[in-house]
Amino acid sequence: MLRLFYLSTLLVLTTSFAQAQTRHAASYLERGNDYYAKGEMERALADFDIAITLDPGFAGAFHNRAIARHAKGDIVGALADLDRAIQLNPRFAAAYVNRGYLRSLRGELEGVISDSTKAIELDPRLSEAYNNRGLARGIQGDVDGAIADFDRALKLKPRDDAVRRRAKQFNNRGMSRYFKGDLDGAIQDHTAAIKLDPRFFEAYSDRGAARQKKGDVDGALADYTKAIEINPRAAGAYYNRASVWMAQGDLQKSVADYTKAVEISPDYAEAYFSRAIVRRDLGNLKEAAADYDKAIVLNPRLAEAPAKSPSTPSSARSHW
Predict the structure, then answer these.
(1) What is the mean pLDDT of the chain?
(2) Structure pTM?
(3) What b/e readout covers 73-82, taking b as 16+ CB neighbours within 10 angstroms?
(4) Which residues, 6+ apart, have CB-to-CB distance to 198 below 8 Å?
(5) How far apart (Å, rounded) are the C-alpha atoms in residues 69 and 131?
(6) What is the pLDDT of residues 34-68, one digit of tens each?
(7) Do 311 and 302 contact (CB within 8 A), yes or no?
(8) CB under 8 Å to 139, separation ≥6 — which residues?
(9) Does domain 232-315 sit in CATH 3.30.530.20?
(10) Cα separation, 313 vs 316, whole angstroms
(11) Is the dihedral of CA 183, 189, 195, 200 positive or negative?
(12) Please, are residues 94 and 63 in contact by the beta-carbon 8 Å criterion?
């Protein structure tokens, strides 16, 4: 099953100036927020820099500069700023949530859990913190702990801007239920995510995987196809639909979908590996060998995988 995990992040600018020691620092913070909202990151960063120069103890300025740095792709700088914001204000709950998010990008699951737990201690209403801790727990194999955190996140009243985030939380719990074998619960959660966000193509793909595992081939195909209609670059949906065609014996359609998957995502090792199997079954041995070689270069562990026909959705990829 294509593991589409979604990490919630507050990654919004603080607008509280209570910690600023000077009015000038607060003014630059406010103007920096305006620039950020307009997408003018360089100007936003410049104003946050000035706010920090004017007031080196202004935790909110460090927090907001971290968000702008993240938007520019500077993860290291963003983490340093969040570390400083937390050092200056150890009760800055949003900073813990956002630092946990950035730690997830580096694969630091224990850091995600510790930051999320601290955020919950400071503000038990932060659904994002429960969601993120649930994700990290699930990836570590604590599926029950993950479901408990997702349950808690979903019981909390969402903020006005949280419809998409709410949908992701349903989808995350659905993924955990899938891995636990609760396919009906997974389908229910993915359906809830789709109702909240009808353009949530990943939820269609994930529901398709649960339906496929239950034996509902027609439902799975419909969901994968819908995901592709919404986002024609959904490589995972092509991969999963290819596995249905393969199971049904429609090898040409299977090859076409695996080919589309690797065109969209050239590093998709599992798609090359699966296409190799289908091409082998079609008698295209030279092309199959090339696909095997490519798959193993991208993921050497596939050299030990059995070369059998893929009939279930992929569980090879996860996305925060």
Answers:
(1) 87
(2) 0.63
(3) ebeebbbebb
(4) none
(5) 24
(6) 888 888 999 999 999 999 999 999 999 999 999 99
(7) no
(8) 5, 109, 318
(9) no
(10) 9
(11) negative
(12) yes
Residue 169 backbone phi and psi in degrees, to 5: -65, -40
Q: What are the angstrom distances between the C-alpha of 218 and each of 81, 179, 192, 209?
A: 50, 22, 20, 12
Query: What separation in angstroms does the CA of 113 have from each of 6, 135, 221, 293?
Result: 15, 9, 36, 38
**Alpha carbon distance 252, 308 (integer Å):** 17
| Cα-trace Rg, the chain | 22
Q: What is the pLDDT of residue 36?
A: 87
Asked, colleague to colleague, whether 1-157 and 232-315 share their fold, the answer is yes
Q: What is the CATH number of domain 1-157?
A: 1.25.40.10
φ, ψ for residue 106 (rounded to 5)? -100, 5
- The 10s digit of each residue's pLDDT in 71-86 is 999 999 999 999 999 9
Residue spans of the domains in the chain: they are: 1-157, 232-315
CA-CA distances (angstroms) from residue 91 to 60, 117, 138, 148, 158? 12, 13, 27, 25, 22
Instruction: Quote the distance between the C-alpha of residue 238 and its chain's center.
Output: 18
